[in-house]
Design brief:
With about 475 residues, the protein is of the alpha/beta class. The protein has helices spanning about 1-15, 30-45, 60-65, 85-90, 120-130, 160-170, 180-190, 195-220, 255-275, 290-295, 300-310, 320-325, 350-365, 445-450, 455-465; strands at about 15-25, 65-70, 105-115, 140-145, 285-290, 335-340, 375-380, 390, 400-405, 410-415. It contains 15 helices and ten strands. Strand 6, helix 13 (about 350-365) and strand 7 (about 375-380) form a beta-alpha-beta unit. Bound molecules: guanosine-5'-diphosphate (GDP) and magnesium ion. Guanosine-5'-diphosphate binds near residues 100, 102, 339 and 386.
């Protein structure tokens, strides 16, 4: 055991480590992406001979036949929660396939990838000097999974309590949200400043949480504070007992208590989460669920675009170079992926990519990301393809999907309708249906990985330069 650990340490000293931030709002597809990517890497050997096939198609090391092996390194940061790869994979295998459960806490996965050492120096060292154990030709990628609800907290770092309250209360009165907020506003207007502040604060926080839960259920994104929905280790902690209040109450003990807790929340919850998981990521894949928000209509779609805009301001992007090497402004590659692309017909997958690109013109209108990073790409992605592509037999022939929507017993043919080409879309003309397809039975997936679209292409963008 000790010798193995020592060998690993020695080998790791020459190994490139790449931290990939898998980012996205709740239900964007982070957990499914990590599961499918890990499983594709673990099973890639089985596809090796069929170039251009399998879930890692378009990952160049693999297509060139230079991919040697991948393994999960449970010994790295073994004191931290590990991403439950086996459990997630199991849910998608077998007869009763189902999508993995929603994520409640943070976890990490380290995958070591070995490739043929194609560079002259490294292959010479390996072949002639017996130094193949030094980690040359080896890359360790770190993937972090976390509840998407926490991501939406990052913009709070730039706001004080008064400004956050004003913004949140205004949003709560918006068309899409006001119907969920009556209970909270009734409580807020009846606040008795004479009562013990701690109790009133926790009642208001409870009413605010109820409101956020209802908003989240309808698909709205800007649900702050995110830990009210997914508290994880902070469950029951007084630090979460706050909610927004009108400025008119600022002289009261209750307001001051809320303000104090808000600042504590920023300092003790959001800042450590940001520092540990985002401040130093090398590469970022931002998963965006364009499709289900599109189906939910204008209010939900535009709130997601606004949330994207707020969140993108928080990251530290760079063109690489000295600053990034010193640990400042690290993230050099950013990939935006429109997920669940198996919900649209083949011919619309490029349109989906185009929709996201246009959405980013709105969300990143000052080019804070696009103009800053060394590498930038937009694509559509399906981490686990739950549909098959079909052509109708009767004229006029058209593309269609075969799949099983959640809750249905059998697979059938579905026409999801086309995607709008304008951004923002002309909402009266949108006729796209998001069928919420369940994963199909995938008898070969255990040894062949899950069928996917553009998974290898995404990996190529993220680490293709590093595993040559
Ligand atoms: N058809 C299809 N559905 C997906 C895919 N990825 C995610 N989903 C759906 O999106 C839901 C949320 O995915 P998940 O990875 O848990 O999202 P997270 O909250 O970002 O971790 C899943 O339960 C699936 O219903 C995909 O590649 N194809
Ligand atoms: Mg998740």
């Amino acid at each position: 055991m000790i010798i193995k650990a020592l060998k690993n340490t020695l080998a790791d000293s020459g190994t490139k480590k790449i931290s990939i931030g898998v980012t996205g709002f709740s239900r964007a597809g982070k957990t499914v992406f990590i599961t499918s990517l890990a499983h594709a890497l673990m099973t890639a050997k089985n596809w090796q001979k069929e170039k251009g096939a399998g879930p890692l198609a378009q990952f160049s090391v693999y297509e060139k036949g230079a991919f040697k092996s991948a393994r999960i390194r449970e010994d790295i940061d073994s004191h931290l929660p590990q991403f439950p790869y086996r459990k997630m994979r199991e849910s998608l295998l077998g007869i009763n396939t189902h999508w993995p459960e929603a994520t409640t806490g943070i976890s990490r996965l380290f995958i070591e990838i070995d490739s043929e050492q194609s560079s002259g120096v490294s292959s010479w060292l390996a072949n002639n000097a017996g130094m193949s154990d030094l980690g040359l030709g080896k890359v360790i990628i770190e993937l972090v999974d976390f509840p998407g609800e926490w991501l939406i907290d990052l913009p709070m770092l730039d706001l004080n309590y008064a400004d956050w309250s004003e913004k949140s209360l205004l949003l709560a009165r918006s068309v899409a949200r006001h119907k969920f907020c009556n209970h909270f506003f009734t409580q807020l207007s009846a606040v008795d400043a004479e009562l013990e502040a701690g109790q009133v604060a926790s009642d208001l926080a409870e009413a605010w949480t109820l409101y956020l839960q209802q908003c989240a259920e309808t698909g709205l994104t800007l649900n702050q504070p995110g830990r009210h929905l997914r508290p994880d280790a902070f469950k029951g902690s007084p630090i979460l007992c706050f909610a927004p209040m009108d400025k008119g109450l600022e002289k009261t003990a209750l307001y001051k208590l809320m303000q104090k807790r808000y600042e504590e929340y920023k300092k003790k919850v959001i800042t450590p989460f940001y520092k540990e998981n985002f401040a130093k990521i090398d590469r970022q894949i931002f998963l965006v669920d364009v499709l289900s928000t599109l189906e939910k209509g204008e209010a939900i779609f535009s709130e997601m675009t606004n949330a994207l805009q707020d969140v993108l301001k928080q990251f530290n992007y760079s063109k690489g170079g000295v600053l990034s090497k010193l640990g400042f402004a690290k993230t050099t590659h950013v990939l935006f992926a429109a997920t669940k692309s198996d919900h649209v017909i083949r011919g619309d997958r490029k349109n989906l990519e185009e929709m996201l690109r246009k959405m980013l013109y709105l969300a990143d209108d000052l080019n804070n990301v696009h103009g800053k990073v060394a590498k930038y790409q937009v694509m559509s992605l399906s981490s686990v393809k739950a549909t098959s592509d079909f052509m109708t037999t009767q004229a006029p022939k058209r593309e269609i999907l075969k799949g099983r929507p959640n809750g249905e017993a059998e697979s059938a043919l579905y026409d999801p309708g086309g995607l709008p080409l304008d951004m923002p879309p002309y909402w009266e003309d949108v006729n796209f249906v998001f069928y919420k397809f369940a994963p199909q039975a995938m008898p070969d997936a255990l040894h062949q990985g899950f069928p996917a679209i553009n998974l290898g292409k995404a990996l190529e963008f993220l680490i293709g330069d590093d595993v040559l």
